[in-house]
What we know:
By secondary structure, the chain is mainly alpha-helical. The chain has 13 helices and six strands. The protein has a domain at about 195-305 and about 335-350: Glutathione S-transferase Yfyf (Class Pi), Chain A, domain 2 (Up-down Bundle), CATH 1.20.1050.10. The protein has helices at about 50-65, 130-140, 165-175, 195-210, 215-220, 225-245, 255-265, 270-275, 290-300, 300-305, 310-320, 335-340, 345-350, and strands at about 45, 70-75, 80, 90-95, 150-155, 160. It comes from Ectocarpus siliculosus (Brown alga). InterPro entries: Glutathione-S-Trfase_C-like (IPR010987), Glutathione-S-Trfase_C_sf (IPR036282), Glutathione_S-Trfase (IPR040079), Glutathione_S-Trfase_N (IPR004045), GST_Omega-like_C (IPR047047), GST_Omega/GSH (IPR016639), Thioredoxin-like_sf (IPR036249).
Amino acid sequence: MATNSQSTLDEVDKDGNVKRTESTFRGTVSSSDPVHKPEAGRYHLYVCNACPWSQRALIARALKGLEGVIGVSATHPTWQKTLPDDDNDHHYGWAFASPDDPPFVPPGGYGSVPSGPGAIPDPLHSFKTVRQIYDMAVGPGKMSKYTVPILWDEKTKKVVNNESSEIIQIFNTAFNDVEGVGNPGLDLAPQTDQERAWAEEVDDWLYNEVCNGVYRSGFAKTQGAYDVAVTSLFAHLDKLEQVLSTRRYLAGDRVTLSDVRVFPSLVRFDEVYNVYFKCNKKRLVDYPNILNYVRDLYQSYPEGFASTTDMDHIRKHYYTSHAALNTYAIVPVGPNFLKTLTEPHDRDRTF
């Protein structure tokens, strides 16, 4: 069954610019929602530890203490054929594995990649690929892109939401009254009208020019598209450096959803984006305020930010999944950025 299935590498316009497709499922969980009520054990989170959008959801889940209420499954880091028995279907994407399964061969046919301990198979339906989740929800061939994270409702056998910025909002509020939540009193949302206005502004440019900007640089298919994207990326990293010179966290003196949104992109920068996506004008370590901000989050809230950072899966995924960018799936030695994050920061003394 040939399909029009695609990944972000395929979402490019005639001028070589990456044009990411918006997420399809935008439902919510709420006591007032007619279908999706908050209940322990009803919902399951499907992720890839390597994916920055997935890490947003994992951070929020951990900070709120939802581990006993919402289960999780995590894919192998290396893409595989999502319909392996169909010679006419050439889509590669997320596939599940157990840590002790045989290594996966990358899409280019070179190399051998073990999953490592971060892989968690699906306990509900023994899904082998993320594509199968969407096929169960809407029917085979109805979707063209199979993304994570996915918030799945096991009662209705439907996808509730696959947009990370909305899933973290759901996790922040929807389950506070459910028994078993570890940190129901934590509120990661901005509290005042001024904070909300600032969060809307900063979230917008951080997503478009930094979090998605690295992909617009790395997956660009013309020099012109790359030049525009990478120039804007570093202009906005400079802007972020300035913002963080005046406040400990993005909203001020406490962690909010804005920090949850941007941390995954920043923690991947020196290990992956600087090299693989050709974002090499500067490294993150060349921005003292940003570096110490990331250190602060990593060290001060380890249950959310450190515990969900799987650098093994991050490095394996990017360097082995895109044959067009790295045919032989060679994973470079890297700068050991996680060690850098354990070094002292100055944020608590500065602010």
